[in-house]
Design brief:
Layout (H helix, E strand, L loop, with lengths): L1 H26 L72 H4 L2 E8 L3 E10 L5 E12 L11 E13 L3 E15 L17 E15 L6 E13 L5 E14 L4 E15 L8 E13 L3 E12 L10 E12 L5 E11 L3 H7 L12 E16 L2 E13 L1 E6 L7 E6 L2 E14 L3 E13 L12 E9 L5 E11 L2 E4 L4 E4 L3 E11 L4 E8 L7 E3 L2 E2 L4 E9 L1
Antiparallel strand pairs: 1-2, 1-28, 2-3, 3-4, 4-5, 5-6, 6-7, 7-8, 8-9, 9-10, 10-11, 11-12, 12-13, 13-14, 14-15, 15-18, 16-17, 18-19, 19-20, 20-21, 21-24, 22-23, 24-25, 25-28, 26-27
């Protein structure tokens, strides 16, 4: 709208000048006669318009370090979340060729590596009508052999999904289904023990089925913005663990002007888990988060509240109803430096599905609890010191109730139990650096140090004391794409309840390499290498991961 006003103003001034100048030129010159003309150019007269900020370009107040992303070779959907722009033919009727992204509806990727690891992956999209898009995707990767006794530590992953979006004038409706299957063995035993010479570990299969759908507005620049999503999930394993969950997420916001915004978020979760030691449990969670914020070129501040109802049963609980404040802000002193700080309390929703995604070797649990974040406060600095180089350094302190940890079970050390600490304090120091160089190199690095103070547990079992992540992306030539990543963590303490022994695990060092070369517009070749140092890494006690592992293959677009 503001651009239209500016254009109209400029055209109006131009028209007025032409109207005043043209009659003089016409009447001063008769037909067929050319006369001398004199023009006066005034260099000191400059037509200027005030700079108006565009609301849809809400850049962060402070330049932040680029965030890291996990080195997962996941396929990103090709379909757009917004309808494609339709280019109308001009008077010349010139035909514009379609880009390569518009020509190829799908792709298939296949490969093979050591440990007997085939890979098959694909996606196909349909967008015949500009008002909708529809896609299907599939991925399977398996490892016939593992780090312990070959096929006794095999593993496989299978994912399938359908998704689609229908676009209206002012909103879009989306939805889909997704199925995940993860098969593995509980191989965390001592293979050198002669008493276990004929032992074959038990197998587990995690099945997860999701049905989701929602609606959201398309124009995010004016008025009220909204998004509502319904998600239904069913989960079970080969034993007696199962969990059904229905969640509703609703987000709404309104910009009062270019600087002032208000929002209200809703989060509802209805969960019914069961396991060997419990059943017929309904874990309900409802959260409302009103928030108001102000931002300009140098200042950003926000204030709100987390209002939560949850019905977990625990001895140290005072009420099912919680209200926590949320405040924070950033102030930019200059391009090179700015300061930030925040204070927030919350209830962190935790389901059985969340726990098993964090540790797949989880066994029967006696109870499931949310984590009460009494407060988390911190401060730091961030900014840009050189062109393309950003940084962030800070700390935060938090106080929690019912923070979860893992330990090998007392009755079955191959499967882990959940342990909850009654009162936990966490001090975290963090440093982040991001750098981009001339478009062909990008680096992101994060370093974290954690100090835990616990009340009922002896240590922060299976949680790292420090983490270091360095991710690099290279595009040395037009047809090359190379990733070189290093993920390190250490200070992990394992606890075996069966032997009542604790053990500090060796530091984890995982060097990863992925290279992709485009042979033609439709065909490319790739190579992936994990754990290139061939280390005996253990993220969880008694569970070493595969050694150096590679896979090569190709991708074909169609």
């Amino acid at each position: 709208m503001k651009r239209s006003i500016q254009k109209a103003f400029i055209f109006g001034i131009a028209g007025l000048v032409l109207f005043l100048v043209t009659p003089e030129l016409v009447f001063a010159q008769e037909k067929g006669e050319v006369k001398d003309q004199e023009f006066i150019i005034r260099k000191d007269r400059v037509l200027t318009l005030p700079v108006q900020p565009r609301r849809f370009e809400r850049t962060p107040t402070l330049p932040a370090a680029k965030s890291n992303s996990s080195f997962n070779y996941d396929v990103k959907p090709y379909f757009l979340s917004l309808p494609p722009i339709v280019i109308k033919a001009e008077a010349s009727q010139k035909n514009f060729p379609k880009t390569a992204e518009e020509q190829y509806r799908g792709f298939v990727r296949f490969g093979y590596g050591n440990y007997g690891s085939p890979l098959l992956e694909g996606r196909y999209n349909i967008w015949e009508d500009e008002n909708y898009d529809f896609g299907a995707k599939f991925k399977h990767q398996s490892f016939a052999k593992g780090p312990v006794r070959g096929n006794q530590s095999s593993e496989s992953f299978t994912d399938f999904g359908l998704d689609g979006t229908y676009f209206m004038d002012v909103f879009q409706v989306f939805g889909g289904i997704k199925y995940d299957r993860h098969e593995f063995n509980f191989y965390g035993f001592d293979p050198s023990n002669l008493n276990l010479a004929d032992y074959f570990p038990s197998q587990n299969i995690l099945n997860s089925f999701r049905l989701f759908g929602g609606i959201q507005d398309i124009d995010k620049m004016e008025g009220v913005n909204y998004a509502v999503k319904l998600d239904i999930r069913a989960f079970n394993d080969n034993f007696q663990a199962a969990e059904n969950e229905v969640t509703v997420d609703a987000n709404s916001s309104y910009w009062y002007n270019d600087n002032l915004q208000g929002s209200i978020d809703f989060d509802l979760s209805l969960t019914s888990p069961k396991d060997e030691l419990y059943g017929d449990i309904n874990r309900n969670y409802f959260k409302i988060k009103p928030n108001i914020g102000y931002q300009d070129e140098t200042l950003k501040i926000f204030a709100g509240a987390n209002i939560i109802f949850e019905n977990d049963v625990t001895l140290n609980k005072k009420s099912d109803f919680h209200i926590f404040p949320v405040v924070g802000g950033e102030y930019r002193l200059s391009k090179e430096i700015g300061v930030y700080g925040s204070f927030e309390g919350d209830v962190l929703r935790k389901t059985y599905h969340d726990f098993v995604l964090e540790n797949q070797f989880l066994g029967p649990s006696t109870q499931l609890l949310n984590t009460i974040q009494n407060f988390k406060t911190g401060a730091g600095i961030k900014g840009t010191v050189l062109e393309g180089l950003t940084y962030e350094a800070g700390f935060n302190i938090g106080k929690y109730r019912n923070m979860h940890f893992f330990a090998n079970g007392a009755s079955d050390s191959l499967r882990f139990n959940l342990l909850f600490d009654e009162n936990t304090r966490v001090l975290n120091y963090t440093v982040k650096v991001g750098w981009e160089y001339e478009g062909w190199y990008k680096m992101t690095a994060t370093a974290d140090y954690y100090h835990y103070t616990l009340s009922t547990l002896g240590a922060a079992y299976q949680r790292p004391e420090w983490e270091l992540k360095i991710h690099n992306r290279f595009t040395p030539a037009e047809k090359w794409l190379i990733y070189l990543n290093a993920d390190l963590m250490g200070g992990i303490v394992g606890f075996n309840q069966q032997s009542d022994q604790t053990q500090i695990l060796p530091a984890i060092m995982d060097i990863q390499l992925k290279a992709d070369y485009q042979i033609t517009e439709r065909i490319s070749a790739f190579a992936i290498g994990n754990n290139l140092l061939n280390r005996n890494n253990q993220r969880f006690l008694n569970y070493p991961v595969r050694g150096i592992q590679g896979i090569v293959g190709a991708t074909i677009k169609f």
